[in-house]
Amino acid sequence: MSDTSTFERTTERGILYAVGTGALLVGAAAVLLGGTQLIVDAVADAVPLRLEVDHALPGGVGGGTATLIEGAYDSAAVTASGLSAGVVTLLTIARAFELLTTAAVAWSVAWLAWKLLRGRPFAASVANALATAGASLLIGGLLSQGLGGFGAWVAIEELLGDVSPEADPFFPLVMAFDPAPLGFGLATLLIAIAFERGRRLQQDTEGLV
Fold first, then answer.
1. Which among 78, 85, 93, 100 is positioned nearest to 32, based on CA atoms?
2. What is the pLDDT of residues 48-67, one digit of tens each?
3. Model pLDDT for residues 169-192, shown as the tens digit of each residue
4. pTM, two decimal places
5. Cα 96 to Cα 29, 31, 32, 34, 124, distances in angstroms
6. Backbone angle region of 57, left / alpha / beta, with phi > 0 → left and psi within -120 to 50 → alpha
């Protein structure tokens, strides 16, 4: 084996080890640190929210050589207390789904890296891991955004009280939706199907030898 081939294999294994280890750490951090933060927030009655806003930037922003023509806020990170138990439950479940989705995807990546290190990229468990990651992105993305958006909507009503629509409240009653997790989930499921077909083709080829 040439020195170039040895270097390439060593580099490849190093990258796979780094990716697998990093994915494991990300998944563990999502469950341990994120789960701990959920409990702390629930006990302290301090619920973090990211609410949609639609207001122009205040005057006097800037002052350098460039000119700020226009700008607006599109979201605000806030912490609320005194929310009803139902709203807190919705928001907590939404955050939990988000953490579990992150962990599932991260651990699927770690499993894929491990199988590649062992030279078995078309093992059945690899396709299953990719399918798990894709399904987690789809289901977790829908549930976390749906529950979180509805919970934030109700939280805004509780924060604003009896503010009339003509009062132009700082937090409008809108629900944001990010299609990116769904797109990534569908793409990952397609990759899982490709790996499964590759595995079957490999089995058929081995049967002909």
1. 100
2. 888 887 777 776 666 667 77
3. 677 766 777 888 888 888 888 888
4. 0.75
5. 13, 9, 11, 8, 29
6. beta
Dihedral over alpha carbons 64, 65, 69, 74 (to 10 degrees):
-40
C-alpha dist (Å) from residue 20 to 103, 113, 164? 13, 5, 53
Strands 47-56, 72-80: pairing is antiparallel
- Angle (nearest 5°) at CA 67 between 65 and 72: 140
Cα(165)–Cα(183) distance, rounded to whole angstroms? 35
Q: How many CB atoms lie within 10 A of CB 2?
A: 7
- Which of 114, 109, 99 shows the shortest CA–CA distance to 133? 109
Non-local CB neighbours of 168 within 8 Å, separated by 6+ positions:
none
C-alpha 65/C-alpha 137 separation (Å) is 44
Identify which of 6, 83, 3, 86 has the alpha carbon closest to the alpha carbon of residue 51: 83
Query: How many angstroms separate the CA atoms of 92 and 73, rounded?
Result: 25
What are the residues whose beta carbons fall under 8 Å from the beta carbon of 121, sequence distance 6 or more? 115, 195, 198
